[in-house]
Amino acid sequence: MPEYRENELCYEDYRALRTLAGWETHSEEQTRRALAAALYDVTAVEDGRAVAMGRLVGTGCTTSLRTW
């Protein structure tokens, strides 16, 4: 049964999981900035190893909505 860790997703786990999934990876600097800006993340850990992750991301800005 995995253990779930909130807001502890690190660069190494993020990169390893993306690589295993066959997804594109980005530079370490770019990735660390993106992880720091995440609103929320969760990592599933089994036997001391990250096996899954999820992230909630935002645009980094607030917009006002108008009705015309």
From TrEMBL:
Gene3D superfamilies: 3.40.630.30. It comes from Ruthenibacterium lactatiformans. This is Uncharacterized protein.
